[in-house]
Amino acid sequence: MHKKAAAVARRVLALAAGFVTGGGCMVVGPDYVRPDMDVPAAMPGASSSAQAAAPLVSWWRRFGDPELDVLVDEAVKRNLDLRAAEARLRAVRAVAGAAGAPGRPQIDAGAEWFRERFPESEGGFGQSGTFVSGGDPEDSWSASLGGSWEIDLFGRIRRGEEAAEAEAAAAESDMHAVLVAVIAEVADAWFDVGEADARAAILEETASLLDQTLGIVRTRFETGLVNELDLRRVEGDLATARGLTPLARQARREAENRLAVLVGRTPGVRPRGTAPGALPVPPEVPTGLPATLLERRPDVRAAESRLIAANARVGRAMADFYPRLTILGRAGYAGSESDDFDWTSRFWSIGPSLTLPILDGGRREWTRIEAEALRDEATARYVAVFVRALAEVSDGLSGLETTRVARDFLRDAVVAAQRSVEISGVRYREGVTSYLEVLDSQRALAIARLEHVAAERNLLREVVRVNRALGGGW
After folding, report:
1. Distances, alpha carbon 135 to alpha carbons 117, 119, 124, 224, in Å
2. Residue 332: HSE in the Cβ half-sphere, 13 Å Cα cutoff
3. How many domains does the chain have?
4. The pLDDT of residue 179
5. Bridge partner residues of 58 (DSSP)
6. pTM
7. So what's the pLDDT on residue 48?
8. In 10 A of CB 244, how many CB atoms?
Protein backbone atom coordinates (compact mmCIF):
# COMPACT_ATOMS: atom_id res chain seq x y z
CA MET A 1 0.00 0.00 0.00
CA HIS A 2 2.78 2.41 0.87
CA LYS A 3 4.31 1.84 -2.58
CA LYS A 4 1.10 3.09 -4.18
CA ALA A 5 1.12 6.17 -1.91
CA ALA A 6 4.70 6.92 -2.87
CA ALA A 7 3.79 6.62 -6.53
CA VAL A 8 0.90 9.07 -6.07
CA ALA A 9 3.21 11.53 -4.33
CA ARG A 10 5.75 11.25 -7.14
CA ARG A 11 3.08 11.95 -9.75
CA VAL A 12 1.87 15.04 -7.90
CA LEU A 13 5.41 16.40 -7.50
CA ALA A 14 6.20 15.63 -11.15
CA LEU A 15 3.08 17.55 -12.18
CA ALA A 16 4.17 20.54 -10.07
CA ALA A 17 7.69 20.44 -11.47
CA GLY A 18 6.29 20.26 -14.97
CA PHE A 19 4.31 23.44 -14.38
CA VAL A 20 7.39 25.22 -13.09
CA THR A 21 9.99 24.06 -15.62
CA GLY A 22 8.00 22.96 -18.63
CA GLY A 23 6.31 26.17 -19.65
CA GLY A 24 3.07 25.49 -17.79
CA CYS A 25 3.40 28.89 -16.07
CA MET A 26 2.99 32.34 -17.54
CA VAL A 27 3.73 35.82 -16.21
CA VAL A 28 0.88 38.29 -16.63
CA GLY A 29 1.19 42.06 -16.57
CA PRO A 30 3.33 44.56 -18.46
CA ASP A 31 7.08 44.07 -18.81
CA TYR A 32 9.17 47.14 -18.03
CA VAL A 33 10.10 49.48 -20.89
CA ARG A 34 12.07 52.66 -20.18
CA PRO A 35 9.89 55.73 -20.89
CA ASP A 36 10.68 57.75 -24.00
CA MET A 37 12.39 61.04 -23.14
CA ASP A 38 13.61 63.94 -25.21
CA VAL A 39 17.35 63.62 -24.55
CA PRO A 40 19.51 66.35 -26.14
CA ALA A 41 22.40 65.28 -28.31
CA ALA A 42 24.87 67.34 -26.26
CA MET A 43 25.04 68.27 -22.62
CA PRO A 44 23.62 71.81 -22.19
CA GLY A 45 26.47 74.19 -21.42
CA ALA A 46 29.26 71.71 -22.17
CA SER A 47 32.06 72.43 -24.62
CA SER A 48 32.54 70.05 -27.52
CA SER A 49 35.87 68.85 -26.16
CA ALA A 50 34.26 67.77 -22.90
CA GLN A 51 31.99 65.15 -24.40
CA ALA A 52 34.20 62.14 -23.72
CA ALA A 53 33.11 60.60 -20.43
CA ALA A 54 35.80 60.60 -17.75
CA PRO A 55 36.01 58.82 -14.41
CA LEU A 56 34.38 60.85 -11.64
CA VAL A 57 34.82 58.37 -8.82
CA SER A 58 37.64 60.32 -7.13
CA TRP A 59 37.10 63.76 -8.63
CA TRP A 60 38.17 65.58 -5.44
CA ARG A 61 41.70 64.17 -5.72
CA ARG A 62 42.32 66.41 -8.71
CA PHE A 63 42.64 69.32 -6.27
CA GLY A 64 45.83 67.76 -4.94
CA ASP A 65 44.97 68.53 -1.30
CA PRO A 66 46.08 65.65 0.99
CA GLU A 67 44.00 66.99 3.88
CA LEU A 68 40.86 66.93 1.74
CA ASP A 69 41.64 63.36 0.66
CA VAL A 70 41.93 62.29 4.30
CA LEU A 71 38.67 64.01 5.24
CA VAL A 72 36.75 62.37 2.40
CA ASP A 73 38.14 58.92 3.23
CA GLU A 74 37.19 59.41 6.86
CA ALA A 75 33.68 60.57 5.96
CA VAL A 76 33.13 57.56 3.68
CA LYS A 77 33.99 55.27 6.60
CA ARG A 78 32.28 57.12 9.47
CA ASN A 79 29.51 59.39 8.19
CA LEU A 80 26.35 58.58 10.13
CA ASP A 81 23.90 59.31 7.29
CA LEU A 82 25.88 56.96 5.08
CA ARG A 83 25.89 54.25 7.73
CA ALA A 84 22.12 54.63 8.11
CA ALA A 85 21.69 54.30 4.33
CA GLU A 86 23.83 51.16 4.36
CA ALA A 87 21.68 49.67 7.13
CA ARG A 88 18.56 50.55 5.19
CA LEU A 89 20.01 48.79 2.15
CA ARG A 90 20.62 45.62 4.17
CA ALA A 91 17.03 45.69 5.40
CA VAL A 92 15.58 46.12 1.91
CA ARG A 93 17.81 43.37 0.56
CA ALA A 94 16.47 41.08 3.28
CA VAL A 95 12.93 41.86 2.17
CA ALA A 96 13.94 41.09 -1.42
CA GLY A 97 15.45 37.80 -0.32
CA ALA A 98 12.20 36.79 1.36
CA ALA A 99 9.98 37.88 -1.54
CA GLY A 100 10.39 34.60 -3.41
CA ALA A 101 9.76 32.39 -0.36
CA PRO A 102 6.06 31.72 -1.16
CA GLY A 103 7.13 30.14 -4.46
CA ARG A 104 9.40 27.62 -2.75
CA PRO A 105 8.35 24.51 -0.80
CA GLN A 106 7.30 25.23 2.80
CA ILE A 107 7.75 22.44 5.37
CA ASP A 108 6.95 22.47 9.07
CA ALA A 109 7.05 19.86 11.80
CA GLY A 110 4.64 19.47 14.69
CA ALA A 111 3.93 17.27 17.67
CA GLU A 112 0.81 17.15 19.86
CA TRP A 113 -0.27 15.49 23.08
CA PHE A 114 -3.76 15.53 24.54
CA ARG A 115 -5.28 13.88 27.63
CA GLU A 116 -9.02 13.36 27.14
CA ARG A 117 -11.99 11.98 29.04
CA PHE A 118 -15.49 11.35 27.70
CA PRO A 119 -18.63 10.78 29.83
CA GLU A 120 -19.04 7.24 31.20
CA SER A 121 -22.29 6.79 29.32
CA GLU A 122 -20.69 7.34 25.94
CA GLY A 123 -17.35 7.40 24.23
CA GLY A 124 -16.07 9.49 21.37
CA PHE A 125 -13.36 10.02 18.80
CA GLY A 126 -10.35 11.74 20.31
CA GLN A 127 -7.85 14.15 18.85
CA SER A 128 -5.91 11.24 17.33
CA GLY A 129 -8.96 10.09 15.38
CA THR A 130 -9.34 6.83 17.37
CA PHE A 131 -12.39 5.87 19.45
CA VAL A 132 -12.02 6.55 23.19
CA SER A 133 -14.29 4.71 25.66
CA GLY A 134 -16.15 6.79 28.25
CA GLY A 135 -15.12 7.17 31.88
CA ASP A 136 -11.39 6.66 31.68
CA PRO A 137 -8.96 9.40 30.61
CA GLU A 138 -6.96 8.61 27.54
CA ASP A 139 -3.78 10.08 26.05
CA SER A 140 -3.51 11.06 22.41
CA TRP A 141 -0.14 11.53 20.68
CA SER A 142 0.73 12.68 17.20
CA ALA A 143 3.83 13.81 15.29
CA SER A 144 3.81 14.97 11.72
CA LEU A 145 5.45 16.88 8.90
CA GLY A 146 3.35 19.28 6.83
CA GLY A 147 4.22 21.04 3.63
CA SER A 148 2.87 23.31 0.95
CA TRP A 149 4.13 24.58 -2.36
CA GLU A 150 2.39 27.29 -4.35
CA ILE A 151 2.88 26.80 -8.07
CA ASP A 152 3.32 30.27 -9.54
CA LEU A 153 1.05 29.70 -12.51
CA PHE A 154 0.62 33.34 -13.54
CA GLY A 155 3.69 35.05 -12.14
CA ARG A 156 2.20 36.57 -8.99
CA ILE A 157 5.21 35.57 -6.91
CA ARG A 158 7.72 36.36 -9.64
CA ARG A 159 6.28 39.86 -10.04
CA GLY A 160 6.61 40.29 -6.29
CA GLU A 161 10.26 39.22 -6.49
CA GLU A 162 10.83 41.62 -9.38
CA ALA A 163 9.37 44.51 -7.37
CA ALA A 164 11.38 43.64 -4.26
CA GLU A 165 14.63 43.36 -6.22
CA ALA A 166 13.96 46.72 -7.86
CA GLU A 167 13.33 48.29 -4.45
CA ALA A 168 16.65 46.87 -3.29
CA ALA A 169 18.35 48.42 -6.32
CA ALA A 170 16.67 51.73 -5.49
CA ALA A 171 17.93 51.53 -1.90
CA GLU A 172 21.45 50.88 -3.19
CA SER A 173 21.21 53.93 -5.44
CA ASP A 174 19.87 55.95 -2.49
CA MET A 175 22.98 54.96 -0.56
CA HIS A 176 25.14 56.08 -3.47
CA ALA A 177 23.24 59.39 -3.58
CA VAL A 178 24.05 59.92 0.10
CA LEU A 179 27.69 59.11 -0.66
CA VAL A 180 27.80 61.67 -3.50
CA ALA A 181 26.23 64.31 -1.25
CA VAL A 182 28.56 63.59 1.68
CA ILE A 183 31.70 63.86 -0.47
CA ALA A 184 30.50 67.13 -2.01
CA GLU A 185 29.61 68.56 1.40
CA VAL A 186 32.99 67.59 2.84
CA ALA A 187 34.75 69.35 -0.01
CA ASP A 188 32.54 72.42 0.36
CA ALA A 189 33.09 72.61 4.12
CA TRP A 190 36.85 72.21 3.74
CA PHE A 191 36.97 74.96 1.11
CA ASP A 192 34.99 77.17 3.50
CA VAL A 193 37.73 76.61 6.08
CA GLY A 194 40.33 77.76 3.56
CA GLU A 195 38.28 80.79 2.55
CA ALA A 196 37.76 81.83 6.18
CA ASP A 197 41.49 81.52 6.85
CA ALA A 198 42.32 83.59 3.76
CA ARG A 199 39.79 86.29 4.66
CA ALA A 200 41.03 86.43 8.25
CA ALA A 201 44.63 86.76 7.03
CA ILE A 202 43.72 89.64 4.70
CA LEU A 203 41.76 91.42 7.42
CA GLU A 204 44.51 90.96 10.01
CA GLU A 205 47.10 92.22 7.54
CA THR A 206 44.92 95.21 6.67
CA ALA A 207 44.26 95.98 10.33
CA SER A 208 47.98 95.86 11.10
CA LEU A 209 48.72 98.25 8.25
CA LEU A 210 45.92 100.60 9.28
CA ASP A 211 47.11 100.52 12.88
CA GLN A 212 50.52 101.76 11.73
CA THR A 213 48.86 104.32 9.48
CA LEU A 214 46.70 105.55 12.34
CA GLY A 215 49.78 106.36 14.40
CA ILE A 216 51.23 108.39 11.56
CA VAL A 217 47.98 110.22 10.85
CA ARG A 218 47.37 110.94 14.52
CA THR A 219 50.83 112.52 14.83
CA ARG A 220 50.24 114.60 11.71
CA PHE A 221 46.82 115.63 13.00
CA GLU A 222 48.29 116.80 16.29
CA THR A 223 50.81 118.94 14.39
CA GLY A 224 48.09 120.33 12.14
CA LEU A 225 49.33 118.74 8.90
CA VAL A 226 46.05 116.79 8.30
CA ASN A 227 42.50 117.54 9.26
CA GLU A 228 40.22 115.51 11.54
CA LEU A 229 38.42 113.94 8.56
CA ASP A 230 41.57 112.03 7.57
CA LEU A 231 42.01 110.84 11.16
CA ARG A 232 38.43 109.63 11.53
CA ARG A 233 38.50 107.81 8.20
CA VAL A 234 41.56 105.82 9.25
CA GLU A 235 39.93 105.03 12.60
CA GLY A 236 36.79 103.87 10.83
CA ASP A 237 38.69 101.65 8.39
CA LEU A 238 40.67 100.10 11.25
CA ALA A 239 37.53 99.43 13.27
CA THR A 240 35.90 97.82 10.21
CA ALA A 241 38.88 95.50 9.61
CA ARG A 242 39.01 94.52 13.28
CA GLY A 243 35.24 93.94 13.37
CA LEU A 244 35.24 91.66 10.31
CA THR A 245 38.13 89.51 11.55
CA PRO A 246 36.20 87.67 14.32
CA LEU A 247 33.38 87.06 11.84
CA ALA A 248 35.84 85.27 9.57
CA ARG A 249 37.06 83.20 12.52
CA GLN A 250 33.46 82.33 13.41
CA ALA A 251 32.85 81.20 9.83
CA ARG A 252 35.86 78.91 10.18
CA ARG A 253 34.55 77.40 13.41
CA GLU A 254 31.19 76.73 11.79
CA ALA A 255 32.90 75.08 8.80
CA GLU A 256 34.97 72.95 11.21
CA ASN A 257 31.80 71.85 13.00
CA ARG A 258 30.18 70.89 9.69
CA LEU A 259 33.24 68.82 8.88
CA ALA A 260 33.07 67.13 12.28
CA VAL A 261 29.44 66.14 11.69
CA LEU A 262 30.23 64.86 8.20
CA VAL A 263 33.10 62.67 9.38
CA GLY A 264 31.06 61.40 12.34
CA ARG A 265 32.95 62.80 15.30
CA THR A 266 32.70 65.58 17.84
CA PRO A 267 33.95 69.06 16.84
CA GLY A 268 37.66 69.74 17.16
CA VAL A 269 40.27 72.19 15.94
CA ARG A 270 41.76 71.29 12.59
CA PRO A 271 45.00 72.50 10.98
CA ARG A 272 45.07 75.63 8.87
CA GLY A 273 43.05 75.34 5.68
CA THR A 274 44.27 75.78 2.14
CA ALA A 275 43.50 79.15 0.58
CA PRO A 276 41.08 78.80 -2.37
CA GLY A 277 43.55 80.39 -4.78
CA ALA A 278 46.24 77.85 -3.87
CA LEU A 279 44.18 74.89 -5.14
CA PRO A 280 44.40 73.90 -8.81
CA VAL A 281 41.04 74.18 -10.53
CA PRO A 282 40.50 71.59 -13.30
CA PRO A 283 40.54 73.48 -16.62
CA GLU A 284 37.50 71.60 -17.86
CA VAL A 285 35.02 69.20 -16.26
CA PRO A 286 34.36 66.24 -18.58
CA THR A 287 30.66 65.54 -18.74
CA GLY A 288 30.00 62.75 -21.21
CA LEU A 289 26.80 62.46 -23.21
CA PRO A 290 23.46 63.31 -21.57
CA ALA A 291 22.39 59.66 -21.73
CA THR A 292 25.24 58.75 -19.36
CA LEU A 293 23.33 60.55 -16.60
CA LEU A 294 20.88 57.64 -16.71
CA GLU A 295 23.66 55.36 -15.48
CA ARG A 296 25.83 57.83 -13.56
CA ARG A 297 23.43 59.79 -11.33
CA PRO A 298 22.27 57.62 -8.41
CA ASP A 299 19.03 59.59 -7.93
CA VAL A 300 18.09 58.89 -11.58
CA ARG A 301 18.92 55.21 -11.11
CA ALA A 302 16.87 55.10 -7.89
CA ALA A 303 13.87 56.71 -9.61
CA GLU A 304 14.05 54.20 -12.45
CA SER A 305 14.34 51.27 -10.05
CA ARG A 306 11.23 52.45 -8.22
CA LEU A 307 9.45 52.71 -11.56
CA ILE A 308 10.45 49.11 -12.33
CA ALA A 309 9.08 48.05 -8.93
CA ALA A 310 5.80 49.91 -9.50
CA ASN A 311 5.44 48.31 -12.94
CA ALA A 312 6.01 44.84 -11.44
CA ARG A 313 3.31 45.48 -8.83
CA VAL A 314 0.83 46.09 -11.65
CA GLY A 315 1.58 42.57 -12.89
CA ARG A 316 1.20 41.16 -9.39
CA ALA A 317 -2.20 42.87 -9.02
CA MET A 318 -3.30 41.42 -12.35
CA ALA A 319 -2.14 37.93 -11.34
CA ASP A 320 -4.51 38.05 -8.35
CA PHE A 321 -7.41 37.69 -10.82
CA TYR A 322 -6.16 34.23 -11.84
CA PRO A 323 -6.41 30.89 -10.01
CA ARG A 324 -3.81 29.80 -7.46
CA LEU A 325 -2.52 26.24 -7.36
CA THR A 326 -0.97 24.95 -4.16
CA ILE A 327 0.36 21.45 -3.48
CA LEU A 328 -0.49 20.43 0.09
CA GLY A 329 0.85 17.44 1.99
CA ARG A 330 1.00 16.05 5.48
CA ALA A 331 2.39 12.83 6.97
CA GLY A 332 3.04 11.50 10.44
CA TYR A 333 2.08 9.13 13.21
CA ALA A 334 -0.78 9.19 15.72
CA GLY A 335 -1.85 6.98 18.58
CA SER A 336 -3.16 6.82 22.14
CA GLU A 337 0.30 6.06 23.51
CA SER A 338 3.69 7.31 22.40
CA ASP A 339 4.94 3.75 21.95
CA ASP A 340 2.10 3.11 19.48
CA PHE A 341 4.14 4.96 16.86
CA ASP A 342 4.70 2.14 14.41
CA TRP A 343 4.04 1.67 10.71
CA THR A 344 0.36 0.90 11.28
CA SER A 345 -0.24 4.25 13.04
CA ARG A 346 1.03 6.30 10.15
CA PHE A 347 -1.13 8.77 8.25
CA TRP A 348 -0.52 10.95 5.17
CA SER A 349 -2.25 13.15 2.66
CA ILE A 350 -1.10 14.92 -0.50
CA GLY A 351 -2.87 16.72 -3.29
CA PRO A 352 -3.36 19.96 -5.18
CA SER A 353 -5.55 22.80 -3.95
CA LEU A 354 -6.93 25.16 -6.61
CA THR A 355 -8.41 28.51 -5.58
CA LEU A 356 -10.36 30.58 -8.09
CA PRO A 357 -11.42 34.12 -7.07
CA ILE A 358 -15.03 34.94 -7.95
CA LEU A 359 -16.42 37.76 -5.81
CA ASP A 360 -14.39 39.95 -3.47
CA GLY A 361 -16.36 43.19 -3.42
CA GLY A 362 -14.14 44.77 -6.04
CA ARG A 363 -10.99 44.58 -3.90
CA ARG A 364 -8.79 43.12 -6.64
CA GLU A 365 -9.98 45.61 -9.22
CA TRP A 366 -9.30 48.58 -6.97
CA THR A 367 -5.90 47.14 -6.11
CA ARG A 368 -5.05 46.94 -9.81
CA ILE A 369 -6.22 50.53 -10.38
CA GLU A 370 -4.09 51.68 -7.46
CA ALA A 371 -1.03 49.83 -8.79
CA GLU A 372 -1.43 51.41 -12.23
CA ALA A 373 -1.81 54.89 -10.70
CA LEU A 374 1.33 54.39 -8.60
CA ARG A 375 3.19 53.25 -11.71
CA ASP A 376 2.11 56.42 -13.54
CA GLU A 377 3.27 58.47 -10.56
CA ALA A 378 6.64 56.71 -10.57
CA THR A 379 6.96 57.37 -14.31
CA ALA A 380 6.38 61.09 -13.82
CA ARG A 381 8.87 61.20 -10.95
CA TYR A 382 11.50 59.38 -12.99
CA VAL A 383 11.18 61.77 -15.94
CA ALA A 384 11.18 64.75 -13.56
CA VAL A 385 14.38 63.55 -11.85
CA PHE A 386 16.12 63.11 -15.18
CA VAL A 387 15.03 66.52 -16.50
CA ARG A 388 16.14 68.12 -13.23
CA ALA A 389 19.49 66.36 -13.55
CA LEU A 390 20.02 67.85 -17.00
CA ALA A 391 19.11 71.30 -15.67
CA GLU A 392 21.49 70.97 -12.72
CA VAL A 393 24.36 69.97 -14.98
CA SER A 394 23.61 72.82 -17.37
CA ASP A 395 23.43 75.32 -14.49
CA GLY A 396 26.67 74.00 -13.04
CA LEU A 397 28.58 74.13 -16.31
CA SER A 398 27.43 77.65 -17.15
CA GLY A 399 28.07 78.76 -13.57
CA LEU A 400 31.56 77.30 -13.73
CA GLU A 401 32.41 79.23 -16.87
CA THR A 402 30.85 82.48 -15.58
CA THR A 403 32.65 82.23 -12.25
CA ARG A 404 35.95 81.50 -13.97
CA VAL A 405 35.60 84.71 -16.01
CA ALA A 406 34.66 86.73 -12.91
CA ARG A 407 37.63 85.30 -11.00
CA ASP A 408 40.03 86.38 -13.76
CA PHE A 409 38.70 89.96 -13.78
CA LEU A 410 38.90 90.20 -10.00
CA ARG A 411 42.47 88.90 -10.10
CA ASP A 412 43.28 91.72 -12.51
CA ALA A 413 41.58 94.13 -10.10
CA VAL A 414 43.93 93.02 -7.30
CA VAL A 415 46.96 93.63 -9.52
CA ALA A 416 45.65 97.09 -10.45
CA ALA A 417 44.89 97.93 -6.80
CA GLN A 418 48.37 96.87 -5.71
CA ARG A 419 49.88 99.14 -8.34
CA SER A 420 47.59 101.95 -7.20
CA VAL A 421 48.93 101.63 -3.64
CA GLU A 422 52.48 101.83 -4.89
CA ILE A 423 51.79 104.92 -7.02
CA SER A 424 49.85 106.74 -4.30
CA GLY A 425 52.67 106.09 -1.84
CA VAL A 426 55.21 107.58 -4.21
CA ARG A 427 52.98 110.57 -4.92
CA TYR A 428 52.45 111.18 -1.22
CA ARG A 429 56.17 111.00 -0.41
CA GLU A 430 56.86 113.49 -3.21
CA GLY A 431 54.20 115.82 -1.77
CA VAL A 432 52.04 115.66 -4.88
CA THR A 433 48.91 114.36 -3.10
CA SER A 434 47.40 114.05 0.36
CA TYR A 435 47.45 110.96 2.55
CA LEU A 436 43.77 110.55 1.81
CA GLU A 437 44.68 109.17 -1.61
CA VAL A 438 46.94 106.59 0.04
CA LEU A 439 44.12 105.53 2.35
CA ASP A 440 41.69 105.20 -0.54
CA SER A 441 44.10 103.02 -2.51
CA GLN A 442 44.77 100.79 0.52
CA ARG A 443 41.05 100.40 1.15
CA ALA A 444 40.48 99.51 -2.51
CA LEU A 445 43.24 96.90 -2.34
CA ALA A 446 41.74 95.24 0.76
CA ILE A 447 38.31 95.10 -0.86
CA ALA A 448 39.75 93.75 -4.13
CA ARG A 449 41.64 91.00 -2.27
CA LEU A 450 38.57 89.96 -0.30
CA GLU A 451 36.45 89.87 -3.45
CA HIS A 452 39.11 87.86 -5.26
CA VAL A 453 39.19 85.29 -2.43
CA ALA A 454 35.38 85.05 -2.63
CA ALA A 455 35.62 84.53 -6.40
CA GLU A 456 38.22 81.78 -5.98
CA ARG A 457 35.96 80.11 -3.43
CA ASN A 458 32.93 80.43 -5.73
CA LEU A 459 34.91 78.76 -8.50
CA LEU A 460 35.67 75.80 -6.23
CA ARG A 461 32.01 75.70 -5.26
CA GLU A 462 30.98 75.47 -8.91
CA VAL A 463 33.48 72.65 -9.54
CA VAL A 464 31.95 70.72 -6.64
CA ARG A 465 28.47 71.53 -7.90
CA VAL A 466 29.17 70.20 -11.40
CA ASN A 467 30.78 66.99 -10.16
CA ARG A 468 27.87 66.42 -7.80
CA ALA A 469 25.37 67.10 -10.60
CA LEU A 470 27.16 64.57 -12.80
CA GLY A 471 26.86 61.92 -10.09
CA GLY A 472 30.58 61.71 -9.33
CA GLY A 473 31.96 60.15 -6.21
CA TRP A 474 30.75 56.55 -6.15
Report:
1. 6, 5, 11, 131
2. 19
3. 1
4. 95
5. none
6. 0.81
7. 47
8. 17
